[in-house]
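In response to reviewer comment 3 from the previous cycle, which asked for concrete evidence that the modeling workflow produces usable outputs, we include below a single protein chain processed end to end. The sequence was submitted unchanged, and the resulting structure tokens are shown without manual editing.
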Amino acid sequence: MDAFYSFLFGSLGGLFFYTNQAGAQCFTCDQAPPGTIWCDDFEDAIPLNQKYFEYNDHGGDFIRMESVGRDQSYGMRAKWQKGEVGAGSLWKSFGKTPDSYIGRNAARPGESFGEIYWRMDVRSQDGWVGGGPAKLSRAMCLANSNWAQGMMAHLWSGGANDEYLGMDPATGIGADGKLKTTKYNDFANLRWLGFKVGNIPLYHSDYAGQWYCIVGHVKLNTPGLRNGIFEFWINDTLQASSTNLDWHSTWNQDPYNLHINAVFFENYWNAGSPAEQERYFDNLVISTEQIRCTCNVTSTQNPDDREGNIFFSNPVADQLRLNLPRHMVPVEVSIIDWMLRPVIRKEIHDANECIGLHELPNGVYLLHLKGQIRPVKFLVNH
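The workflow returned the following structure tokens.
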């Protein structure tokens, strides 16, 4: 028996454990993070035109579907045909809005929000080509019923080959504190405040097929000061930040003037898609507090994806997330207790599948994948 234990733990080949919190499903809208103004994980069947003030399915291109969200949950599928520009959108309003149309289905109507965070989870299909499809999301102030924009915090593609996500802040308020824009996308009357690109090439083909948690943050400036903020993260890694923005000059001194009141989630490819391909959305959140992508889940990954064999003795909580190369599935997985008794045996068909550990008592266990020589140990600590 001692020789067997020495064989098991003397060399941690095969799989290793590490904390990959950004890859996990961190919440449901029933248990949304603190500060949430509004949340949609697409698990309910409420028609989308009863949640958003505008929903454009673009002839069936952008629809709610089973198994396309994180962890095979419900999500939104956007499909471009070759050469197609638009593939649908979801436009959400909240707070004080200029009219009943924009205020349709608004969250927390009548309030004013000078600072928000918003999240969306995004995945491009395997084999994605063409770089970034331009417009992804934007927070904005719709300042009047003609849709004149008091500010826009754009998240759209840029950088080398448009493979990165960038932030492009713009405002329709002049330095004198007056609204200059007269209509939607009134580019001639916008002040552009400086494009900055991120550092993760999420639209490169090598990054396709993975979920990315994208969080934006906007804070309007104090009237008369240049202390406005725009920044964004991917998987909790800061991509770009500006903290000296003059979003609104003195506009916000007037209590009747509108603040941030909409976030648009979009699939608009200016140049058109070079091929028929799909992208997926899940977990849309708007909040007054910072949104983290991390969650209490431990993951495994094949060591071929990293240099060397690494083992972090982080305890597992209630579920174990596998992060396996796709060529390894399907595969039979066994969890074995310290007395070498199998307590869970399961065939895995999804490389990112979670194994529930709720019924296991705290203690040390082994994970073994059929065909792998050595199992690895891990600690369950609920």
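The longest strand covers residues 277-287. We consider this sufficient to address the reviewer's concern, and the full set will be provided in the supplementary archive.
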